Amino acid sequence: MEVKNREYLEEMVRELRKEGTNVIIGSLDEMINWGRGNSIWPLTFATSCCGIEYMSIGAARYDFARFGFEVTRASPRQADMIMVAGTITHKMAPVLRRLYDQMADPKYVIAVGGCAICGGPFKKSYHVVNGIEQILPVDVFIPGCPPRPEALLYGMIQLQKKVKAQKFFGDVNRKEDKKE
Amino acid sequence: MENIIYIEKEKFHDVALEYREKGYDFLRSLTGVDWGEEGLGVVYHLENIATKENVVLKTLTLNREDPHLLSVADIWKGAEFNEREVYDYFGIQFIGHPDMRRLFLREDWVGFPLRKDYDMSLNPLRMTNEETSNATQYIEVLPDGSVIKHRDLLFDNDEYVINIGPQHPATHGVLRFRVSLEGETIKKLDAHCGYIHRGIEKMCESLTYPQTLALTDRLDYLGAHQNRHALCMCIEKAMGIEVSERVQYIRTIMDELQRIDSHLLFYSCACMDLGALTAFFYGFRDREKILDIFEGTTGGRLIQNYNTIGGVQADIAPDFVPKVKEFIKYLRPTLKEYHDVFTGNIIMQGRTKGVGILSREDAISFGATGGTGRASGWACDVRKRHPYAAYDKVQFEEIVYTEGDCFARYMVRMKEIEQSLNIIEQLIDNIPEGEIQAKLKPIIKVPEGTYYAAVEGSRGEFGVFLESRGDKYPYRLKFRSTGLPLVSAMNTLCRDAKIADLIAIGASVDYVVPDIDR
Question: Which of A44, A61, A125 is closest, CB to CB, to B288?
Fold first, then answer.
């Protein structure tokens, strides 16, 4: 299937910077974000089926090292990004929240698969959280049950683009009202 | 339809003991059921190892407020976790059970979810951290009939207890252990399950039969095909549907491909846990080839949704047969390479030989089937014990080792890959012509009764217990987990081992956590 509007994040950035950015801060931003975006360290976190596909993209055929994701960390304190791959249950939810809280800022969340997005096939269960957005802010959603490795990679690249579009120094856009 | 022997609850322990003495050593499955007005009870499936005879027992209590039954945990060790599961689901307390706690749900969970009158609104999502309680209870009945509860401690206050998981890369998912150490030696291990308890059994009670199939694939995703095969077989048995030869052959080939897939993943992960990252890449490289074959026919890589009631979803792809043959030709020499890379390695041998020994008696008592049981000298393969599909038409060897250590468990799985290749080779050229789907009514209703069917999953006996009341929906559907007995055996396996061996033992028993928690 053709993915439409592949470049929307870049377009958004172009739109925001139409009026120009600060020469020094802007270039520093771009440089730092280039570095950050290309070396996102994921947390080794998987609860169920999607975790196996996550392992697949770590292996030779799909190889996420091509995009700088290969440094998987077992400790949340060293990780930049958490890929919530699999169902989150009521018992796991506080643990997941705690893992997220232990990660250092800036941090990102990817929700992988139907279960993490909305509860998936287990939506009506008494013990499944209907979407991790109830407990964490999510940056990228990757649908599927489980998503194909290509989809996972596409989602991770979208996250990279998002990271690169951020303002690292926290400056506001010139056109925006500063009070906001 | 199974013949169930009803036994009064007061006599149950004595009767169970009699059966054990008659040779019924293997508790195949222990299922709690809520029969509504007729009471709450438990159904036991027993098997005589020597004669392969099966017997089904049941006992029940009418008291819904404070139900009690006699525990059989002292007769079959495997009953310990299963009875905790029944307590968790139905609130039945077992008298004489050494550790009567919840197994899956939080300590502060209200009510018992698998009871028919359970109210879901009682348990909203709690974001408070769960306190790990050190207390457990032991229930005793006095000669005058009164029941008293003793409080007990899991670990003494001066023991050194460390926590492993649920977020730990070597537990293969969200499993949690609490381990009491003396120096580096493990004195006691307490497994906490339920971090991926999805309540599949309860959900199935409100789904129609074809809908329930989709959830089985997601139990043990490395045995997706076999799990679904078991449920389809159980429903077909209940409805008396004959599936064609062609379907039987296709299902058998798919089951074996799935087994190879699972064992390759076992190899990859076991190696990675023991520090050999290269082997991980080797295993995954070859696993992708199987996934390609799956994808060509079923459209799914990991979760295939291929079996249906009375057949399979679609006919095999035109290139299925040549691709499988090519794969067999490829994998045989590659297996030799695996052994060269990893099996002969001195560090690997040192870390696995003589480590985590499980005796044959314990394996049977825990019901630890699959590679773990066969490594301990117990010939427990369902494909040999109760042949199904096309397994009675093929020649293959059941791999049995007697050492019972981590190395034996590893070798059983590696040799089983070869046997699976043999099975596929015998079938692949002879797939008969025929229907791929039996003609069925649009609404599937299963006649009243209870049924049990089992297949040899990737890591042991995967059983399905189905109780039907003649509706579109199952009254009770229970999946005999392949992993739960393995986890319940972890305390025995790890006792007096070193803490570093816990990783090797965990890798070698090869459990999949969503299958334990269901």
Answer: A61
